[in-house]
Amino acid sequence: MIEQLQDLQSAAGATFEAIADTQVPVSFGNDAAAIQAAQAGVALCDRSHWGRILVSDDDRLRFLHNQSTNDFQQLKPGQSCDTVFVTSTARTIDLATAYVTEDAVLLIVSPNRRQSLMEWLDRYIFFADKVQLQDVTSESAAFSLIGPKSDALLEKLGLSAMIGQPYATHQLVQLADVEVRVAVGSGLATPGYTIVVPASKAATVWSNILQAGAVPLGDRAWEQLRIQQGRPAPDRELTDDYNPLEAGLWQTISFEKGCYIGQETIARLNTYKGVKQYLWGIRLSAPAQPGSVITVEDEKVGKLTSYTQTEGDHFGLGYIRAKAGGAGLKVKVEETTGVVVDVPFLRRGQESGVGGQG
Fold first, then answer.
1. pLDDT tens for the 358 residues of the chain, in order
2. β-strand 330-333 against 192-198: which pairing, if any?
3. Strand ordering across the sheet containing 43-46
4. Is 75:266 a contact under the CB 8 Å cutoff?
5. How crowded is residue 286: how many other Cβ atoms within 10 Å of its Cβ?
6. How far apart are CA 9 and CA 32, in angstroms?
7. By C-alpha distance, which of 195, 154, 193 is closest to 48?
8. Counting Cβ atoms within 10 Å, is residue 52 exposed (0-12), middle (13-18) or buried (19+)?
9. Is 252 helix (H, G, I), strand (E, B) or coil?
10. Which residues lie closer than 8 Å to 312 by C-beta, 6 or more apart?
11. Separation CA 2–CA 137 (nearest Å)
12. Which DSSP symbol is given to 165?
């Protein structure tokens, strides 16, 4: 089971910390090499602590269509979408990826949102609805291949049929005599794949991927990449203070579909150009504390939400008032100077060419 996977990871030098009541490999003692692999080769990240919720029965697509921002009614088995769950006033709850199969939808959700999303979704299932929810996190493991050489590794594993498929395409395949679900998309803006594996076979599949040439990457390095690329996270960029347009998640929103929770607010913001702040990357001159005020010439223009230290560099994410400016804007985060930069995961409009690979 998962214990076998963790034993294997421990033997490879992994150190563990508890995240969402699960022991997670935060580092393999190779963070710099793992990030280099994700940028120029291929890294393997264990995302088994992320939640996996199975939504089944006849009304599953209609139900999810009505509960989140993307258009589920047009999806066929083997297709997927990134979608945002929001409150009735369009405040962000979580960014999720949904894999549509023949008889269900598998949602991959953030580790610290699994239980609350199960409870939140359950509240909206009414007596006549044919919808079943099941938390299948403990029954499976989830890995991400991250990096430009992911295709070459997939070919080495005998999975070349997935190469070149559209983003979020997924299918069941055999990997080391194990049936796994492989989906296009790493969870970041970097090219890659997500692999969902039965828990009992997780150690076998992990070993085979490493033997094929992937470099193990811990959660600490994942967090660094997340911040550098701009993927918003719950309790940081996704909170009751922000909506998905401000969070740069325009690619997850259908502006054509009918009513859903939070739709009126999102439609009004889009129609009347009402987005007053946006999420940006900030290249910093020194360390800074999340929650710090961002200023321009002593005027408060936003707030820092995440920070990471990279090789000789400091980087953060923060919300900045639209009127203050965008890329190239010089700011201060408390006493630390910084420059606002674009990050590849985010979009700030329907026509923008950048966006996440969920």
1. 699 999 999 999 999 999 988 999 999 999 999 999 999 999 999 999 999 999 999 999 999 999 999 999 999 999 999 999 999 999 999 999 999 999 999 999 999 999 999 999 999 999 999 999 999 999 999 999 999 999 999 999 999 999 999 999 999 999 989 999 999 999 999 999 999 999 999 999 999 999 999 999 999 999 999 999 999 999 999 999 999 999 999 999 999 998 999 999 999 999 999 999 999 999 999 999 999 999 999 999 999 999 999 888 999 999 999 999 999 999 999 999 999 999 999 998 875 433 344 3
2. unpaired
3. 170-175, 178-184, 192-198, 140-146, 43-46, 215-217
4. no
5. 12
6. 18
7. 195
8. buried
9. helix
10. none
11. 11
12. P
pTM: 0.96
Decide if 179 contacts 87 (C-beta within 8 A).
Answer: no
Burial of residue 327 (number of CB atoms within 10 Å: 0-12, 13-18, 19+) = exposed
Tell which residue, 86, 83, 69, 89, has the closest CA to residue 265. 89
Residue 237 structure tokens: 């960029």
Residue type, 250: W
Q: Report the 10 Å Cβ neighbour count for 18.
A: 10
* Burial letters 330-356, b for 16+ CB under 10 A, else e: ebbbeebebebeebbbbbbeeeeebbb
Contact 173, 328 (CB under 8 A): no
Identify the CA nearest to 330 among candidates 294, 291, 289, 277: 294
What is the spatial distance between Cα 50 and Cα 336, in angstroms, rounded to a whole number? Answer: 34
